[in-house]
Amino acid sequence: MATFHEQVKGWHEGERAIHTLLKVPTSSRENPTNVGLSWSHGDRVSASPLVAIGTVDEQGRPWTSIWGGERNFAQQISHDRLAMASLVDKCHDPVVKSLGLDRLADGEVGQTSGDKAISALSIDLESRDRVKLAGKVVVGALVGRPNDEAVSQVQLAFQVEESLGNCPKYLNKKVIWAHLPSPQLVSSSLPLPEEAISLLAKADLFFLSSTNGQTMDTNHRGGPPGFMRVISNTDPSPGGDNCAVLIYPEYSGNRLYQTLGNLHTNPRIGLAIPDFDTSDVLYLTGTTELLVGDTAAAYLPHTKLAVKITVRSAIFVKDGLPFRGTPGEFSPYNPPLRKLTTEAPAPLSASKPTATATLVGKTSLSPTVSRFTFSLAFNNPKEKRLWNPGQHITLDFGGELDNGWAHMKNSDPQSLNDDYVRTFTISNSPPSNAEQEIKFEITARIHGPVTGFLWGYHISPRAARLEIPVLGFGGEENFRLIGTGKEKQKVFVAGGVGITPFLGQVHEIAATDHEVKLIWSLRADDLPFARDVLGRNEGIKQVKVRLFLTGGCGESGKVEIAKIKGLEGVKVEMRRLTKKDVQGDWFDKERKKYFLCAGVGMMKVLRGWLEGEEVVSESFEY
C-alpha cells in the first residue's frame, strides 16, 4: 500500500485518465504538490486577503465559499496548520452549513473526527499570487456579533496535508478591501434569477471545488468578463430535471489537470461566483461533463476543451461576502471572449480541411492594409462548393504558427490559447465559369500573428509555396445586398476594412438595377486603400458613395483625395461620420435597409443611431 507521501507525489486514477485522454506526458513525472505546508507557502497565504474554501455536504455535494477581506486573516500557527478568522454569512454560506458550524451555539467550538476533507485556495489579486491547500478540519466555531443575526465570525483550524503554489495566468488584478456584509437571500431555487444571470455576464473570475473521494481541490478559473456562458436557464421540467446549464472553456494551464482528474472520477462540482462591486455571490453545485475537441467547439468556437455544468442547486445572496474589490488590469493571458454558437453566428467550418489555399499574390494598399490573393484547390473536386458573394472563408494557420504547448510565455501570452484558425471575408466574387482557375482575395489590416505572418511572407519562385488548409465558407444569407428585395434601398455603412463584404458583392450589384448607397468611414492614412477600392471596381460606379476621412493628410494625401473626388458618384468629407449623415435626406426614409460592418466601438454607435430602423450587421468577431 502506498504511503501518504507517495499518494501526494503520485497521480490518482482520474488524473492519469485525463493525461491519457489529452495526450500529455504529465503522468510520467512526479506530482509537484507538496506534502504539508511549508513556512514559505504559509507566508504567501497570510499575505493573501482572500481564501476560497471548499468542502462537501451530507449528500456528498461539493460547495465553495470565499472568506477574508484583509491580509493576515489566515495565518500559519504551527507546522502544517492554518488558523482563519473571517466574517461570514452564517445563514446562507453553504460551506459554513456543510461543516456544521451553523448548528453550534454562539462561540461553541465544534471538533471534528479529523476526517472532514476541506480544500482552499489563497489568492492575492494584486500580485496574482495563489496557493492551493488541501487537508482536514481540526476545530471550528462561529462567534456572533452584537445585534447582528445574519453575520458571524468563523474561526477555523485547518490541518494542511497538501499545498501547491500556482502560476498567475488568467487572474485579473483587483484591490481587495474588507466590507461588512448585509446578506439577503434572493433565491435558493432554479431557474437562476435575473440577478444571477447578470452576474455571470460580468464575472471574470470564479472558484470551483471538486473531490475524487479521498481528497479535495479548490482552484480558480479566470478570463475575460462573461467567459462562463449560459447554455440554458428555463423552468424545471415536470420530471424534476434541472434547467440551468453552464459552460466554460478550459484554457491552457500547467497540464496537471487536478480539477479535471477529480471530475473524471466524480463529476460533482461546487462553484462560488463573486461580484466584487456589490459583494453579491452565486453559489452553485452540480454535475459536469468534459467536452474535448469538436464536441467543445460545437458549443464554443475555437475551443478545444470545455466543462459543461448542469446546476443541481443554486443560492444567490445579495451583499453576502465580507469584501469588495476595485478592478485593475486584465491578465495578458486572457483569450478573446468566445460566445456560444447559439449566441453569435459561427464561421461555417469543417473539422477537417476541405481544400487548400495557396498564396499567389500580395498587394500593399496602405501602411496597415494589404490584399492577399490565393488560388484554391479542393481536396475532392466532386465536392467543390464555391462561396457566395460577401461570404467569409475559414483558414487554419496552425501548421505554420503553432509551436506547441508552453506553460508561460510572457513574450506572447495570447499564443497559449490560439488555435490560429482565422476567418476572413472574401473581397472578390466567385468565378462565373466553373472551369476557371479559382482565386479568392482577402483584404485585411495587420493585426495579430496571422496577418503579421502573411504581411511578412515573401513570395518568390524559389521559395516554398505557402499552402493553408481551408475549413470552409460561411456567412449570413441576410447580409447579401442583392436578393433582399429590389423594393428596398440598401445603405451599406462600413468602418475601415469593414468594406470587404461589400467588395465581394460589387459585381453582383453591377449586374442589377438595385439602388445601393455606400457610407465608408476611413482613416486618412488609408487613402491609397480607398483609391484602389473605388477605382478598381467598375460596379461601384452605379453606387452613390460618401467617403468620410478622419485624421490629417500631407501633400501626397491631398493628391490622393483629388483623384478620389474625380471618380464618378463619389463624395469625400474630411470629417467624422455623424448621426445625420447616416440618417440623411439622401435616403428614402420609407424604403431603406441598413447593412453594417465595422469594429465593436463603431458598431455600437451605429446601432444606437439606427434604433428602430431595419438593420442587419456583420462584425469582425468571427
Automatic annotation (TrEMBL):
Residues annotated as signal peptide: none
Name of the molecule in the record: FAD-binding FR-type domain-containing protein
InterPro entries: FAD-bd_FR_type (IPR017927), FNR_nucleotide-bd (IPR039261), Riboflavin_synthase-like_b-brl (IPR017938), Split_barrel_FMN-bd (IPR012349)
CDD domains: FNR_like_2
Organism in which the protein naturally occurs: Podospora bellae-mahoneyi
Ranges for domain FAD-binding FR-type: 352-482
Transmembrane segments: none
Stretches of the chain forming a coiled coil according to its record: none
